[in-house]
Amino acid sequence: MEILKYEVFLDFNFKELTYKGSEKIFCKLGANEKLVLDAVGLIVKSVRHEGKALNFLQEKGKVAIDISNIEGVIEVEFEGKVKETGLVGIYKAPYNGKYIISTQFESSHAREFIPCVDHPAYKAIFKISVKVDRDLDVISNMPAEKVVETEDGKKVVEFKETPKMSTYLLYLGIGKFEEIRDKLEDIDVIVATVPGKISKGKLALEVAKKAIEFYNNYFGIKYQLPKEHLIAVPEFAFGAMENWGAITFRETALLADENSSFAQKRRVASVIAHELAHQWFGDLVTMKWWDDLWLNESFATFMSYKAVDALFPSWDFWAEFLMDETSSAMFRDSLSTTHPIEAHVESPEEAEQIFDDISYGKGASILRMVEAYIGKEAFQRGIQYYLQKYKFSNATGNDFWVSLEQGSGQPVSEIVKDWITKDGYPLIHVNVEGRKIRLIQERFAFTNTTPRVYVIPITLDINGKKTTFLMKDESVTIEAEEDVKSLKLNLDRTGFYRVLYDDVGLFFDSSPNHLERWGLLDDYYNFLLAGKIGYETYENIVRNLMNDDNYMVVDEIRGELFNLWSINTSKYTLINEFLELQTARWSSRKDENSKRIYGNLLRTFAYVDNKFAMGLAVAFEDYDRLDPNIKEAVATAYAIAFGEEAYDDLLKKYRGEKFDEERSRILNAMLSFREPYLVVNTLSLGLIGEIKRQDTARILPLVARNPYTRFAVWKWLETYMDKLREFYEGTAILGRSLRGAIPYLGINIKEVEDYFTTRVFPDIKIEIDSALEILRILRRLA
Description:
The chain is of the alpha+beta class. It has 26 helices and 29 strands. The N and C termini lie far apart (58 Å).
């Protein structure tokens, strides 16, 4: 079967949230093939071929049509309804008492919009026409070709044909939009928001233009569509979605200006770069099936950091990559519920559960490791070869590695096979005796697991001399030219493995850079979680780096010590000493990274020390004039210091803010109250629509780290679990949020573990199992 083209006409009743549709499906069917369309929540009224009505059966999300062995056009009449709740398919996205209609189809929700063959390998051309009220705007993947006003007070917007593309990349947005636009050669680059918010779109527009130009050069293929929309959707489940030519974002992933924090600017640049990379890697070339989801997500993740690093070299963005991608991926890959990067997926529903740190962060980290081994120029040649060969079609993971090997001339397959098809990763023990260095590998995991040997690209520095080799066996012995006086492995932290030193002093004597010092901290914190070292050994590592003046190292120590404090506030008190030492020294630094870390230090200090919170809280009087990098810290301090007295002030401020960036700061602060009922009141705002659906799950891991309110938060979660599942049906977002929340909620509340152990949640089972495993790990430290 081959689907060539869909011509779709949709007549919308915007007020009633319904539409009537007709489509022409141009297809080729073999002698033994029947046309079976996917259609969920749609009512198919008729099917015709050459004017003749065809018999069809609609059941269980499928429309089986009684025809075969044709090359022609099938005409389908149908009716659909816009979802008033939910965040996938075609749905209502409310804002300020109004709404737009928007769509989100990955991985298998285009079938909730039109009858279609909803499978990534069945690429087709789409010709979309939409009839709406004259005062409404319409956005789709392509520019409008013509607009015709009709006698009934409506208009028909007819869009140009798309290139061949997968169904999950379709987009339709209807409502009131504001836009700013600019030209990049012959491409219209456009940022769109709901009315009143476009003032924060200028940074996004500039980043998008520069990123497209970067990718044009890097990939050797020009951006293929005549326009690129970047659309801020007021309710959006994910960070963003790479619909070809019409990328959708939650507002906090797209909107920023000079009054935004540095963290916000970085996020906007990173997410835009990620989604634009998809316009080539995912849209132009698409995986054949969801087994190779990593092909889309790993590569877009890797390329987004490469692009942002090129556009903003002072941001030190590869450091951000390690903190945001590699660290979280290694943690996820240490659990028994992990999966290979190339995961076998039976259904699109299963695919929802692997949009995770493995498919994004681990895959991207392996790409970084491969690039470091074969060289940047060879890697780029391989990528260009792959895109040229498979453009406008589909490919598999093996196609990618073969292309990379052929384009680069390097033995890539030998390196990557283990890393793509096997789960987990290695820990390398380092033993030194005189001139001899013995490396022994084992699989690293938090709990007992299957032993495994990996092919590891080792990078090391012995007495100041760098070398690299492939470690293929369980152990290897290297002999240095003289006695080993300094030694470090995993240079620049490019390898996806951990290192445990017999004598960590050799590492500190090797002049490690900030990436390598960060790596040591990340390794030894995870060794502590796994029970491979005791707290005394871990604390010794931290104390060796307590006076470090690099933002990456300081923020890592802050985060680790805060996690430990959250587990047991009376046992893990080193954080107070660290914060007293570090906070003051960052207050006078002017670079943006330093301002970001200063804000993090202030927020954490306020959280763990009531006296400090009281002193910082007085700055709330001048909140609107504060540096945006410290606003959340001051609001948090205000909540902690004044409790009930602060609640109404913060709630009023939350309700009065126009932009989600500011609302998120205030909301995060309102989860830090010491009084349980105030935190529960805050959470319950999500049940009545005052907190956006997109944020109600996001805040669960954050509030779970508040040790003063856990029991109340747990009872709230238990009470509203079914409602939350309805909110996020079809997205797996709730599962990821619960993975971050359950371990902290359950540290001292046994019924948390009992509840999730005795109940079955099939759509989020993997994440629940992961959460319970993390809970048991944290309890060992409590």
